[in-house]
């Protein structure tokens, strides 16, 4: 092996330590030191392998950057923009400037942004958005984040704890299980679901929570009343049109429709009106997130409230905190808010 081919991973393997420990031993760290005996093992391994440290990695590890990278799935979605407001507030208090990237829910773009922020020596990276069931894509992203962390960067995520980093995770299933109970108590028995994209773990968890909660109350959701589609307003609009089209007589085939996020619910309300139906007289509708734009929606939308700005603050604090050997998982619960879109059925 020549000096040009030796990587920090090689040194860590030779010394019998983690990549993060090897990085802290060689590059230094603004937040954490390495035991003297471990540091000496790493340095001995580096000398044997003739490893040359990366000057940029050392600069990042010693906290010389003032940028925090925030990567979201869709900045036009109020869910993400409100989380971003919390990240920005917390970053400003820490003396950092936020660099924002929107992936448009493209996994390759997300990975490319992580690599770009590593090259730009960002102090920390926050990824906001649910994961998919694509294990290979998750593994590639996890590997890139581990490389970034090994160079001294901090990382946190909002979503499922699948990337090996500190994560703020939403209790989606528990919340929609509670929503199922509340809607059932209001008299609803026939449900449709705008279930979001296939394989999106947040969408799946929200759907499963509602389905399982209703099943426990003796109510089954007909597969014909479950419509998949994009996590967007237009996805909700088209999904509702599809659901209404499955009725032979032009009436709504269900009493209530649950959309797995609020922007889809807003699209569903518009589609119902376009079809000449009244919300909630002809069909009740509920969402998830309690985005700020719901203040202007008529009728007011039943939903599950998340403290979105606070979630952004929590994620920032995790990303900037001293690293630990095991990733931290911070659960956040939602609160069911019943409004005019789901009145009690007579």
Automatic annotation (TrEMBL):
CDD domains: HTH_LacI, PBP1_LacI_sugar_binding-like. It holds the Pfam family Peripla_BP_3. Keywords: DNA-binding, Transcription, Transcription regulation. SUPFAM superfamilies: lambda repressor-like DNA-binding domains, Periplasmic binding protein-like I. Residues 6-62 form the HTH lacI-type domain. Coiled coil: none annotated. InterPro entries: HTH_LacI, LacI/GalR-like_sensor, Lambda_DNA-bd_dom_sf, Peripla_BP_I. One of its GO terms (molecular function) is DNA-binding transcription factor activity. Gene3D superfamilies: 3.40.50.2300, lambda repressor-like DNA-binding domains. This is LacI family DNA-binding transcriptional regulator.
